[in-house]
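Incident review: delayed structure delivery

Summary: a single-chain prediction request sat in the queue longer than the usual turnaround. Root cause was a stuck worker, restarted by the on-call engineer. No data loss occurred. The affected request and its eventual output are reproduced below so the record is complete for anyone auditing the incident later.

Affected input:
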Amino acid sequence: MPVVIFVLGVAVFAQGTSEFMLSGLLEPVAADVGVSLGSAGLLTSLFAVGMIVGAPLMAMVAGRWPARYALTGCLSLFIAAHVVGALTTTFGVLLATRVVAAVANAGFLAVALAALPALAGPHRVGRATSIILSGVTLACIAGVPAGAFLGQALGWRSAFWAVVVVSVPALVGTWSLVRTETGKAEATDGSSLWEEWRTLSLPRVRIMLVLGAVVNAATFAAFTYLAVITTNISEAGPGWVPIMLALFGIGSFLGVTLAGHYADRSAHIILSTGSVALLIIWTTTALIANYLPGLLIMATISGATSFAVGSTVIGRIVTTATPTAPHLSGAFATAALNIGAALGPATAGLAISTTGTTTSALWTSAALALAATALTLATPATQPSTH
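Output delivered after worker restart:
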C-alpha cells in the first residue's frame, strides 16, 4: 500500500480527534468563554452539521483542482481553524472555527476517498478505505482520551494545539506524496461536476448510500449512549465508562483493519453476513445490558462488527459511484457516514424519551440493523465496475 494512504490516515486521525474530543472538554470551555453548558454543546452539534453540508460543498469547490491542491487546501484550512480556535476568547469566534473545521474535514475526507482509486489502485479501494477510516477508530482509542487529559492538565486550548501539531506533518506529507502518486491528476470544470450529481439517480448507488447511513446510524445510536448505559448498571461506577469506551474503540480498530484485507474481493459477503451479525449483536447487547461483564464483551464485539461493515460499505460507495462521479464519490460516502452519525443518536434519543429507558438506544441499533439486513439482501452480489 502506498505510503500516502497512511499519511492520509494520520490526517484523518487528527480530524477524528478534533471531532470527538470536545465531548470531554465542554465544561472547561463553557467556563472559560462564559457560556452555559448547553450553549457549549453547539460546538459538537454544529460540527456534525458542518460535516454533512461540507462534504458535497467542498467536493464541488475542490473538484476543480488537482487532488494535491484540494487535499492540502482543506487540511490547511482545518489547521488554521484550530489555531484561531486556540487563540480566541470569544465564543462566537470559537463556534465559527468549529464549523469551518468541520467543512474542511468533510472536504478532505471526500477528496481523499474519491482519490483512492488513483492513489491505491482501483482494486485496493476497500483496503485503502479501511486504513483511512482506522484513523477515526484510533482517534476514539487514543486521540480523544489524550485530548481530554491535555485539557484537564494544561487547559482545553492545549488540545487544539495538539491537533495542530499532529496535522502539520500530515500536511507536509500530503503535499509531497500526492504529487508523486497523482502527478497527472486533472481538474474538472463546474459543468462536469454538476453532471456527476446524476449518479444519485442510479439505483445501485442509492442503495449503497442508504445502507451506509443506516449502518452508521445503528453504530452511533448505541455508541452515543454507551456511557450512560454503563453507569446505569448497579455494580458499575463511573470508572467503568472509559474502559467500556476503550473496548468499543479497540474492537472498532480491529474490525476495520480485518475487514480491509477482504473488502475488495468479498464486499458483498461482508455486508450480507455482517448486517445479520449486527442484528444479532445489538439484540444480544440490549438483552444483557444490565450485566456488566456481558456488556464489556459485547462492546468489543459490536465495535469490531460495526466498523467492519461500516468501512466496507463506505468503500463500496466509492467504487460504485466512481465510474460516473469520480470527483463526488467521496463526498457521497462522507455524507452518508455523517448522516448516519447524526440520525442514529437523534433516533435513539427519541426512543429513550418515549420509553424512559437507556437500553432503548440498543434496541434502536437493533432495529436499524434489521433495516440494513433487508437492504443488503436486496442488493445484487456483483461488484461494481472500476473501469
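Verification: The CA atoms of residues 82 and 160 lie 6 Å apart.
Action items: add queue-age alerting; document worker restart procedure.
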